[in-house]
Design brief:
Number of helices: 2
Shape: globular
Structural class: mainly beta
Distance between the termini: 14 Å
Helix content: 10-25%
Number of domains: 1
Radius of gyration: 16 Å
Largest sheet: 6 strands, mixed
Length: about 140
Amino acid sequence: MGLGHCEGLMEDDVYGSIASTEELMMVKTAYASDGVVDRRILSSIITPTPMDPLRALQIKWCVNGSAPKIVSSMVRKRDFVYVESSGIVMNHSMKKLNWVLSKNAAIGYAQTPERHTQWRPQQREMLLFGWRIGKCIE
């Protein structure tokens, strides 16, 4: 669990946390150095639109292959099939709340490559963003 705040617009925070195309997934990996070595969008259920650019519901697959060199021979790559949802809502005080939710999906997809050395762990992630004061996001 992590808590904190940063300067900027809430939309920028959410946009940096999601990736609605495989190209944006690669950009996110480059910026975040998250160790993802392969990725695919398996299905888009809700896609971003010009009117709602941060709303998405997608099924994704990725392989995380990062490990320090000293232990890389002992650590297997991990692949994830997960459902990711993002968007913006207004709370009862009419303040914007942004969310990004992802949860592993225990389903098989023909589009994922055959796994020889990967391990599929459980994964859950929830990011919530809200205005604090001025241009500060919590």
